[in-house]
């Protein structure tokens, strides 16, 4: 396992909400007449923010789906609920052809797909593996993203709550035609958040491979959605990378500022 830290790479930029964003909040309104689901806010400033865990989790999930790398548990049970067979696989490629077909006494097949734990792939390197498994430290640190254009949103006359809007959605009963309205708090389209990522590069690491995988994850999120209700139009975001810099041991010892990483090119989709 790599133990010597060679450098820290800093990726800075912005996240713009292209459509309304619903991230990280409670499903219960905090006051009478409040929204059914609210966004997460900074306890001091009351401004909405994007938790680093939300972005990092979405990046990892999409990368693992894209490559088929995930920890898969397959349970086969009979009609009485007894487990007939249980197997674990490190990727979809390891699941034998026809294994998920019912046969014999098998009544149900339950599949659980969790983050990859192989400890060998580039995704495990970037995002880490828990100590209970391979114990690989994560290379990627994703900071919470604070709201940048808060003054613009604060002055807006079109917001329903401080910095946010409330969107009403209606569920229609297919038989009685009764309407059940629900209200969702969203950060409005046009909101801009800061993006700050840190990549720890250890001795022996494929630096370009790690950085390329991080940017691939950002591009996947950009083409998918961030937060909840993405299939209903929420959560489309646009990333813009402003700089990729680094600090190595010499820079830290000399108390210098981060230096531009000249040999790395930012993907066009993120510029």
Could you walk me through the main structural features you see in this protein, from its secondary elements to its overall organization?
- The protein contains 5 helices and 12 strands.
- The chain has helices spanning 52-67, 122-127, 150-155, 207-222, 249-253, and strands spanning 5-17, 49-50, 69-77, 83-91, 108-114, 140-142, 145-146, 165-172, 179-186, 192-202, 237-248, 259-260.
- The strands form 4 sheets. Strands 6-10-1-11-12 form a 5-stranded antiparallel sheet. The protein has a 3-stranded antiparallel sheet with strand order 4-3-5. Strands 2-7 form a two-stranded antiparallel sheet.
- A hairpin with a 5-residue loop joins strand 3 and strand 4.
- The longest helix is centred in the N-terminal third of the chain and has 16 residues, at 52-67.
- It starts with a strand and ends in an 11-residue tail after the last strand.
Compile the SSE list and pairings.
Elements: E1 5-17, E2 49-50, H1 52-67, E3 69-77, E4 83-91, E5 108-114, H2 122-127, E6 140-142, E7 145-146, H3 150-155, E8 165-172, E9 179-186, E10 192-202, H4 207-222, E11 237-248, H5 249-253, E12 259-260
Helix pairs in contact: 1-4
Shape by Cα distribution? flat
Amount of beta strand: 25-35%
Order of helices and strands: EEHEEEHEEHEEEHEHE
Q: Give the overall pLDDT as a whole number.
A: 85
Strand order of the largest sheet: 6-10-1-11-12
Beta strands, count = 12
Low-confidence stretches: 29-33
Radius of gyration: 22 Å
Largest sheet: 5 strands, antiparallel
Distance between the termini: 34 Å
């Amino acid at each position: 396992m790599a133990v010597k830290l060679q450098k820290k790479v800093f990726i800075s930029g912005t996240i713009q909400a292209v459509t309304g964003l619903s991230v990280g909040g409670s499903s219960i309104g905090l006051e009478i007449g409040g929204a059914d689901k609210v966004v997460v806010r900074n306890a001091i400033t009351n401004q909405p923010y994007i938790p680093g865990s939300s972005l990092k989790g979405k990046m990892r999930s999409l990368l693992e789906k894209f490559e088929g790398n995930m920890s898969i548990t397959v349970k086969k049970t009979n009609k009485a609920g007894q487990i007939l067979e249980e197997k674990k696989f490190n990727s979809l490629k390891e699941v034998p052809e026809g294994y998920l077909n019912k046969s014999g006494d098998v009544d149900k097949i339950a599949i659980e797909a969790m983050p990859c734990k192989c400890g060998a792939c580039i995704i495990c390197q970037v995002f880490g593996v828990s100590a209970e498994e391979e114990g690989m430290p994560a290379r990627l640190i994703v900071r919470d993203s604070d709201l940048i254009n808060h003054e613009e949103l604060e002055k807006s006359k079109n917001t329903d709550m401080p910095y946010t809007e409330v969107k009403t959605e209606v569920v229609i009963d297919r038989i009685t035609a009764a309407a059940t309205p629900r209200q969702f708090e969203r950060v409005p389209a046009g909101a801009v958040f800061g993006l700050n990522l840190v990549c720890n590069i250890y001795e022996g690491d494929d630096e370009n491979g790690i950085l390329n995988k991080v940017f691939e994850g950002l591009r996947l999120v950009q083409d998918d959605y961030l937060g909840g209700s993405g299939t209903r139009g929420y959560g489309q975001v646009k990333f813009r990378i402003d700089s990729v810099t680094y600090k190595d041991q010499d820079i830290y010892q000399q108390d210098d500022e981060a230096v531009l990483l000249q040999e790395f090119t930012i993907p066009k989709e993120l510029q």
